[in-house]
Specification:
Elements lengths: L1 H21 L17 H28 L4 H15 L3 E2 L5 E2 L4 H8 L1 H18 L8 H27 L2 H27 L6 H38 L1 H13 L1
Antiparallel strand pairs: 1-2
Helix pairs in contact: 1-3, 2-5, 2-6, 3-4, 3-5, 4-5, 4-6, 4-7, 5-6, 6-7, 7-8
Length: 252
């Protein structure tokens, strides 16, 4: 118990230090897609697509907290990890930004549905408290970061661990590809809303994805490495909780 509290305290302190050092006041660039940037029909469309995953995630989260209440600290850590990383923004495409997402860790720990709830809460708090993103575009941002990213991470992690047994490699690739998948979806969302005059949606998608790739590829690699480091800490200090989560997922 003492070790878990120390680890949680260190994580929180480091998180706030990173946040204030890297995210000092500056011109406000939106987190993913900013408030009011999407046409109304597309904003509504992404809300409709996103909501079923969120509702299923609430059910999954409730089940986990009831069956394994001792994992609440890990839930908090997964949410804090996503909040801190996704707050480290780099200006990119007009109306959007590049940054790590931090959703791969939670997806591996609890599954993609739970991360759809945690990721949405992260986006909501950032929209309300940090002016990153917005409420009208929350459905689009949550679908890309809190739904697609975690599902990609979970599928990749399961595939690599089953085929190679190399857990750390699986964590790295899962976190990095979750990051990249998020921005591919964001590129598609922007392309659908703003098709190019010449070439339509396809040309617009290639343009947005190409611009994002300049910053997102190194960010994805860095996020993968950082996620492995955090995973190593969890294995060292929270091995019992990890084993319980693993047994729960196998029995589900």
């Amino acid at each position: 118990m003492k070790g878990k509290r120390i680890l949680s305290g260190i994580s929180m302190v480091l998180g706030f230090i990173l946040y204030f050092l890297w995210n000092e006041p500056q011109t406000a660039y939106a987190m993913h897609i900013m408030e009011g940037f999407l046409p109304v029909k597309w904003a509504l469309f992404w809300w409709v697509v996103f909501l079923p995953f969120f509702l299923l995630g609430l059910r999954s989260l409730t089940r986990i907290t009831k069956e394994k209440p001792e994992t609440k600290l890990l839930l908090g850590l997964a949410g804090a990890f996503a909040f801190v990383l996704s707050a480290l923004k780099i200006p990119s495409v007009t109306g959007s930004s590049s940054h790590p997402t931090g959703t791969g860790l939670g997806a591996v720990l609890f599954g993609p549905l739970v991360m759809s709830v945690l990721g949405t809460l992260v986006l909501l708090f950032q929209a309300l408290l940090l002016a990153h993103g917005g409420l009208t575009t929350l459905g689009a941002n949550a679908f890309s970061m809190a739904v697609v990213g975690p599902f990609v991470a979970y599928i990749v992690y399961r595939a690599i661990t089953r085929s190679t047994g190399k857990q750390r490699l699986a964590i790295f690739v899962a976190a990095a590809l979750a990051d990249m998948a998020t921005y591919l979806v964001t590129s598609l969302q922007l392309a659908l809303a703003f098709p190019a005059a010449s070439g339509g949606v396809a040309a617009s998608f290639m343009k947005f994805a190409g611009i994002f790739a300049v910053t997102q590829v190194p960010l994805a690699i860095s996020e993968g490495l950082l996620t492995v480091l955090v995973w190593n800490f969890l294995v060292a200090y929270n091995g019992r909780e990890l084993a319980q989560l693993q047994s729960m997922k196998q029995g589900a």
